[in-house]
Amino acid sequence: MKLYDIPDTQFSIAIRKFASSVFYPIFIALICYISWAYSLVFLGLWIATALFALLMVTQRNSIYVFPILILIFYIFPDFKEAYYWAGVNLGLCVLAVLYNIIVYKVKLNKGGLFYPIMATFFAAAVGGIIYTTITYGFVKYIKDTLFILMLTASFGGGYLFLNNTVSTEDIDYKKYISLTFCCLAALLIAEMITYFARADNVLEAIKYKTLRVGWGNTNTMATALMLTVPFFLYISTQYRYGAFFLLGAFLVYGAIWITESRGCIIASTPILLFYFIYLAVKSKGFKRYTLITVAAIFVSAVITLIIVFRSELYELFSKMFAKGLDDTGRVELYQEAWNLFKKHYIFGTGYFYRTDKTKSFMYMFHSTPLQIMANLGLVGVLAFAYFYYHKYKILFKNLKSSFGIAIIGSILSIEIYGLIDVSLVVYYLAITTILLLIIAQKNIADKNTDILRKEND
Known about the structure:
The protein has helices at residues 10-19, 23-37, 41-58, 66-71, 79-103, 114-126, 129-136, 138-165, 173-198, 202-207, 218-235, 243-259, 262-282, 285-308, 310-316, 318-323, 330-343, 368-396, 402-418, 427-456. 74% of the residues lie in helices and 0% in strands. Helix 6 (114-126) packs antiparallel against helix 8, helix 11 (218-235) packs antiparallel against helix 19 and helix 18 runs antiparallel to helix 19 (402-418). It is mostly helical and 457 residues long.
């Protein structure tokens, strides 16, 4: 037997059957939760890496690694301990990908987003070339650039590989991706519940936004939750008893309120309302009545809770209500970003611009457009404009599909929130966006194939 024939063996068929079932993303979510909750991140990473390698060896279709790629970022209770080990596991995954490319003779056609992605990383590589060299020295700039080049290879290579190996022929990819995001929501909410269960005072923890889960805080938790809402709504129309998924969408929206992330509440609310109305109008018969009935029951329950516990709820959310639309220091950051852009308007300061206030891997200006302008200058603005043009070109072509609009709603929620906080330049949101755009491209091709088939019939 040749290596090329491995996918046709009974073992590979059994792996494919499991990987295409709902139990597979549930399994990945459980591994991520256990690893996070009990600080077994190394064990979780090695299990995920082994599964990734197994799928690369036994399957030609790379869609089965999507649950791993979407869920694995929420496994880290502490980045400091797992940072270098994650790099080792990533290296092993790269070797598995190279095996798949060589054995299955994958042709790496560039696709619609390769050059736009590379343009953004070119801007990142030259970003700060003047500022960093003058401020910290040329050696520091070279070190930063080498890291950017590693990211370039990861994102560019990852897009090339996945865009050319993802197939939608042997799987109901719409349900598959939607269920994966439902599992992501379950994982995130489980982590929230665990954190609050371990807190000395749950109400105080919610009121004062102390939620910290290692990989993120209240705002990043809410941002990740936002991604999942449209997929809950979509999948609720795909099953006769989809009311459970519709209830899930409302529960996730409620979890966003628990984080007290004002920006995410503002961004997710219109997306939820618009997409719900769209699905209610488009659905027919039992499904339409189910959507409307469940929504009416949920809204009635929420109104009842607000009336009965209005004093307690006001006390719980009093700090958030008191802030209202207060900028919480953002205006000063925006002014700082604008001043840096004016001063370093060609190449910017680079992504690794730092001050004594920097608490993470990069100094956050709490606005994605201003982050790009300050860090990458005009070169970055042009590069991201090129990327956004092709990105929305893909999304626009998905408007005729209910699933396509779910993708649009998910990405658009990030974009809206990104106006008042960093989003696209956060690695797990950037990777998730690329994965969704790959699926959006496949959805366009699938839609065109259906049209041609109907015309031929």
